[in-house]
Design goal:
five-stranded mixed β-sheet; globular; 2 helices; mainly beta; about 10% helix; Tachylectin-2, Chain A
């Protein structure tokens, strides 16, 4: 009974902390239990697609953008979901990144590419996909790493022009490196592009070509969500004049995609203290900093006590 009362109080405080009228981050709906580990998002032709994290079926889910329910199951033939981490599109093809690397042991990464027009309008569909294999340069001396204590994890990807860009998740220092590779099937060594101090863990990416704006999503080791905005150029990919926005919610934010010129869709994975949700973030109403309400302070304390106790081994 005491545990139930604690969680009722906790959830009440949490929702109060994000209920401010000027908050640019709005929860749209809870996601279906079947996509409780939503880790990638694309929004195209008025439809939202997502996928789960590791060990799920090789399936892309089309979801209702107001209810969070699943409208369609799209299976990728001859694909495996070892650790799917992000989803992106160039308008014709979609790309899903099977490159999660929590234990730091994976040297070869995989991206599956499939044609969006090949998806049939039926409840369940199975389509063909192509495979892109790649690796990133890793120093020979860095072969022994510990779970979630290394700089070689990867959870974010987007398309810019004729290339795919992937972004590392550095558990040690909170830095981020960008690499590029072709977006056609083949075997590649990804090319290093640039790096910056993200002061957190990068988990999602998307690019608005009409605004030449790159968005990187992530969270800190205390569970504070954040969003970076960059305007990359050929000479300076991570422009130092970037903008960082702290999100008014403590959760494991994993996916981001462009909704329109003024807003983004976000999703977070379900955790014991945080249900999986679909969000809208309004860019024109964003501020660089937020005020941490009492609900967020409680959420941060719970994150510190539980999250790192279960993730560090």
């Amino acid at each position: 009974m005491q545990k139930r009362l604690f969680f009722i109080l906790f959830w009440s405080l949490s929702f109060l902390s994000i209920a401010k009228a000027n908050n640019p981050l709005k929860a749209v709906c809870r996601l279906s239990q079947e996509v409780r580990e939503s880790s990638g998002l694309i929004y195209i032709n008025g439809e939202i697609y997502t996928h789960n994290d590791s060990k799920d079926k090789p399936c892309i889910y089309r979801i209702d953008k107001t209810k969070g329910t699943i409208l369609q199951w799209i299976y990728l033939r001859n694909a495996k979901n070892m650790d799917w981490e992000d989803l992106t599109t160039d308008g014709n093809f979609a790309y899903v990144g099977d490159f999660g690397n929590n234990n730091g042991k994976h040297r070869q990464r995989t991206i599956y590419r499939f044609q969006l027009p090949s998806i049939q309008n039926k409840h369940k569909d199975t389509i063909n996909c192509e495979t892109i294999h790649f690796s990133i340069p890793i120093p020979a001396g860095d072969l022994t790493v510990k779970f979630n204590l290394h700089p070689y994890d990867m959870e974010a990807m987007t398309v810019i022009g004729d290339e795919l860009f992937v972004f590392t998740k550095d558990w040690l220092r909170g830095h981020c490196k960008a690499y590029s590779l072709p977006k056609i099937s083949g075997h590649y060594v990804a090319k290093f592009v640039d790096s910056f101090d993200a002061k957190g863990l990068i988990t999602g990416a998307c690019y608005n070509s009409s605004l030449n704006t790159l968005y990187l999503l992530g969270y800190t080791t205390h569970g504070q969500g954040f969003l970076y905005q960059f305007q990359p150029s050929s000479k300076l990919f991570f422009n130092p004049s970037h903008k960082r926005i702290n999100l008014a919610y403590f959760a494991q934010f994993e996916a981001v995609c462009v909704r329109d010129a003024n807003s983004l869709y976000l999703s977070n994975e379900k955790l014991p203290w945080s249900s999986g949700k679909l969000w809208i973030f309004e860019l024109q109403r964003s501020e660089d900093k937020i005020k941490a309400g009492i609900g967020n302070r409680v959420r941060r304390a719970l994150w510190d006590l539980v999250y790192w106790g279960t993730h560090l081994r």
